[in-house]
Amino acid sequence: MSLPKRIIKETERLVNDPAPGISAVPHDDNLRYFDVAITGPEGSPFEGGIFKLELFLPEEYPMSPPKVRFLTKIYHPNIDKLGRICLDILKEKWSPALQIRTVLLSVQALLSSPNPDDPLATDVAKHYKEDEKGAQNVSREWTRQYAS
């Protein structure tokens, strides 16, 4: 299976020059499929956790965004029970100028700043809006339980 030059270049950069707190390694048998690990950002309720994600580059990439999903359970208003992520650049704000690296940095940033006003997990968003401290405690607890 031959890969577009762009994917090869991006992959080399991800492997040789990883962004802090992010690792993305392609599968040997499918180079469009990456195992991703993101470290919970310092000062966030996810600090100390290591979250596993999968990232897949569709045939149309870079004209369409990569598919990214959390495999590790996480209590976050913008990530649902199936691990789907509500992030504008994975949908309507996608641009071919963006890269896998940019996407993963944005996901990492989302962990630092949950946005309950654009929720995917409405129950979690409601919790975050009504009792932010309590919700952060649940996020911390889940991080300890599922992401350590």
UniProtKB/TrEMBL annotation:
Class of this enzyme: transferase
Residue ranges, annotated region (Disordered): 129-148
Active-site positions on this chain: 86
Domain UBC core: 2-148
Keywords for this protein: ATP-binding, Nucleotide-binding, Transferase, Ubl conjugation pathway
SUPFAM superfamilies: UBC-like
PROSITE patterns in the cross-refs: UBC_1, UBC_2
Compositional bias ranges of the Polar residues kind: 136-148
Assigned EC number: 2.3.2.23
Keyword Coiled coil included in the entry's annotation: no
MF-aspect GO terms: ATP binding; ubiquitin conjugating enzyme activity
Entry superkingdom: Eukaryota
InterPro entries membership: UBC (IPR000608), UBQ-conjugating_AS (IPR023313), UBQ-conjugating_enzyme/RWD (IPR016135)
Record's keyword annotation contains Membrane: no
Family to which the UniProt record says this protein belongs: Belongs to the ubiquitin-conjugating enzyme family.
Protein name per UniProt: E2 ubiquitin-conjugating enzyme
Organism: Sistotremastrum niveocremeum HHB9708
